[in-house]
Write a structure and sequence with these properties.
The chain is about 25% helix and about 30% strand. It is an alpha+beta fold.
Length: about 400
């Protein structure tokens, strides 16, 4: 993760602009004053930098919740603030200046791009957790008339695949940094031809974090066109057994199971597993039904007037049927309001974001929750709590 270690942290007067980065405000944790968040905007990307005091020095890095890709935006923002404030840098994993070719950025889409207007293409395939991108790039090259959407939350993998897309000049690939389980909830019904889930993390000790689940399969079936397929590939016998049982428990029963199948493209990890004579398992479900259209015009607006004391909500959790809202941390903006970090939605796939109360206005930050049914139910509870 991009970061620098500094001798002492120094605040400057906000807002200001420096080296092409706009800095809007700084917020301090009301419980732990040694932690602060800085709002930065690079081009059209708004995110937070985190400042935290350690035992002997301070750390300036990207906030995890709002972290953006490509990460040159973050690197440039860190360098810009350090230069403006005259910080004494003890260690840095950043270069002095970071540039990025625009074509590398064109394939990476913010989640709102898909939420507001899902791409219109004759054929769409989705890959969940594309990792090194070997399979995703191969499919894009072999099927130029198909739009390939790759979903990944590992930043380094995204950066690597963006470079490959630019080098190869591919124009039929879109990447999104988001939880695939939430992403599927607003994919239009009966649209996708193939969904790939290749070598997902087994999560043997935390099975609730597994991608394959009853809700995920149900959403996949809804998103798939008639005859479309959901294709799982795994080297984990435990994950295969769990997934097979999950598929068997659903009404949809048209699926095939294969072992050590050659699919024409092999990643370096699969190649290593084959040399070790490790088994590779495949489960392919074929959708045989048409699904109803989904509702997507949810209103996530918040009223400007906020009638709660956020200091009292700090660390509080509100539970309700099929969802929750957890106020993780509260930050104060000097003479101007609050920045509240929260998680909301379902327990299995919560969304993490902020609420910004500033200049007399209350809004989600840096963007509204994703327009899913689960998030909307949580939003209604939050709106009732904030505004009565």
């Amino acid at each position: 993760m991009p970061h620098i270690q500094i001798q002492d942290f120094k605040e400057v007067s906000f807002p200001f602009s420096h080296e092409g980065i706009d800095f809007d405000f700084i917020a301090s944790n009301i419980k732990y004053p040694d932690e602060k968040l800085i709002c930065a905007t690079s081009e059209d990307k708004t995110f937070l930098l985190q400042v935290k005091q350690g035992e002997t020095n301070w750390l300036l890095k990207s906030d995890k919740v709002t972290r953006v890709s490509p990460n040159f935006h973050i690197k440039n923002a860190i360098n810009a603030y350090a230069d403006k404030a005259g910080l004494e840098v003890l260690f840095s994993n950043l270069a002095q200046k970071h540039t990025q070719h625009r074509e590398k950025d064109s394939a990476l889409k913010h989640i709102n791009f898909f939420e507001k207007s899902f791409p219109d293409a004759k054929e769409i395939w989705v890959e969940v957790g594309f990792g090194s991108g070997v399979h995703l790039i191969h499919q894009a090259q072999q099927n130029p008339d198909v739009l390939h959407i790759g979903i990944e939350i590992h930043k380094a993998s995204i950066e690597q695949v963006l470079k490959q897309i630019a080098i190869l000049g591919l124009d039929n690939v879109m990447l999104v940094d988001f939880d695939a389980r939430l992403f599927l909830e607003f994919v239009p019904s009966n649209l996708v031809g193939r969904i790939f889930v290749h070598f997902p993390v087994p999560w043997d000790k935390k099975p609730h974090r597994r991608v394959i689940s009853h809700p995920f399969i149900s959403e996949s079936i809804r998103a798939l066109k008639k005859g479309g397929t959901l294709e799982l590939r795994s080297d984990s016998e435990n994950y295969f057994s769990y997934s097979l049982q999950t598929f068997l428990e659903l009404n949809q029963s048209d699926f095939q199971v294969r072992k050590n199948q050659d699919i024409g493209i092999v990643s370096k990890y699969e190649s290593r597993w084959r040399k070790m004579e490790k088994n590779i398992y495949d489960i392919t479900l074929t959708n045989n039904e048409d699904s109803e259209a989904i509702k997507s015009d949810y209103d996530f607006s918040l009223s400007d007037k906020c009638g709660v004391d956020f200091t009292e909500l700090n660390t509080q959790t509100i539970r309700f049927e099929n969802g929750f809202i957890h106020f993780e941390r509260v930050y104060s903006i000097e003479n101007d309001g609050f920045l509240v970090r929260l998680s909301m939605g379902s327990f299995d796939k919560p969304e993490h974001l902020f609420i910004l109360v500033k200049d007399g206005k209350t809004s989600y930050f840096p963007h509204q929750p994703i327009a899913s049914r689960t998030n909307y139910n949580s939003h209604l509870k939050l709106k009732e709590l904030l505004h009565g």
